[in-house]
Amino acid sequence: xxxxxxxxxxxxxxxxxxxxxxxxxxxxxxxxxxxxxxxxxxxxxxxxxxxxxxxxxxxxxxxxxxxxxxxxxxxxxxxxxxxxxxxxxxxxxxxxxxxxxxxxxxxxxxxxxxxxxxxxxxxxxxxxxxxxxxxxxxx
Length: 139
What we know:
The chain is α+β, with helices and mostly antiparallel strands. It has three helices and five strands. It has helices at 70-97, 102-122, 124-130; strands spanning 4-15, 18-23, 46-51, 63-69, 133-137. A five-stranded antiparallel β-sheet has the order 3-2-1-4-5. Strand 1 and strand 2 form a beta hairpin.
């Protein structure tokens, strides 16, 4: 389906109805001959936990495909990057407008972003229920 972001991965753990899949991100650097010695290329595995109704059909070490809807990917980017930037900017401008010093405004703005991420942490179960990954066997 065109409206999904798909990645191949390797199952490394199955606990209950959760399947943990290690996915190696493919960046633009993956085809570069110098990628092995370059510090810019990111090849660290990412772990994706997928809840499935039938975990018994999967085996540890099996290659699978993990998919998520594009809309859910956009939502994740908004929550992780765009909203915190807006919180930082709004807090900074409000504090500077209220007459706070630059250092204090900067530190308090970073604190506001920290509070935002703490709130995200407490609402993680709700967010996990909205951003759903699918797992498929490779053919």
